[in-house]
Amino acid sequence: xxxxxxxxxxxxxxxxxxxxxxxxxxxxxxxxxxxxxxxxxxxxxxxxxxxxxxxxxxxxxxxxxxxxxxxxxxxxxxxxxxxxxxxxxxxxxxxxx
Length: 97
What we know:
Layout: H1 12-18, H2 23-41, E1 47-51, H3 59-76, E2 80-84, H4 91-94
Parallel strand pairs: 1-2
């Protein structure tokens, strides 16, 4: 079986180069990654909570939800790490599945 590339997808490095993150967000991501790693490795006694909805189709509602979740995260950050898990491109979400 042979394949023919229609278009080559960019690598993560290509995307990072094209759309660099501001320094303050790079630092924040590094901090969050370390905090999550500490929970998974047992160095932290916090509880990691990955929260849906699994899928959503309304950008405004998703942004509102994530902003509300961030405010709640501030209230519980000494005990929990809340991580939103929202996928906006599922076939059934877009009406194509």
